[in-house]
Amino acid sequence: MTIQTFCSRSACALCLLGAALVLAGCATGSSSGREFSAEQSRQPMTVVQAVVQSVSSVVIVPEGKDTGGGQLAGGLLGAIVGSGAGNDGGRNSQVGAVLGGVLGTLAGQKAQQATQRKEGLQIIVRLDTSEMLAVTQDADVQFVAGELVYVLRGNGQTRVSKR
């Protein structure tokens, strides 16, 4: 294997890794209080007035709906880099490619999970009916204790919105 071949393989693998991670990041579902899917936009929601009791910072992690992009890209990159372990093109290259592929798959999965973690809020509200709810959603809108808000419920979704 020449240095030119290794570099062009590595550059190709890095491009694949980057593209897979970008696509994997786009595949995550939104937990924003301000974003609605096309299906949700056509469905009625019940609106109840409430008062914010407390707000806590949380981290929202992926739900295991792994697109596999990070694993695929990491595995490819690991296999390409690992195949360079032996420059004879024989057994050492094959073993290096397999080990590199396995380690790259694990690293790619962890990298994808890390890019999908996001900051969130757990908002505890007291409804006008005196019922209390805890709603967790993205931290894209800030709330403070004592604030008057709306709680929207429908189709298995609950979100807190500014009045």
Write structural notes for this entry.
The protein has helices at residues 3-26, 69-83, 91-116, and strands spanning 46-60, 118-127, 132-138, 148-154, 157-162. It has 163 residues and is α+β, with helices and mostly antiparallel strands. It has one domain. α1 (3-26) packs antiparallel against α2 (69-83) and α1 (3-26) packs parallel to α3 (91-116). The termini are far apart.
Quick recap of the structure?
By secondary structure, the protein is an alpha+beta fold. The protein has three helices and five strands.
Share of β-strand residues: 25-35%
Oligomeric state, counting identical vs distinct chains: single chain
Which residue ranges are poorly predicted, with pLDDT under 50 across at least 5 consecutive positions? 21-28
Q: Return the structural class.
A: alpha+beta
Q: Please give the order of strands in the largest beta sheet.
A: 3-2-1-4-5
- Give the radius of gyration: 23 Å
What is the terminal-to-terminal distance? 65 Å
Largest sheet: 5 strands, antiparallel
Keywords:
3 helices; five-stranded antiparallel sheet; 40% helix; alpha+beta; 163 residues; single chain; 28% strand
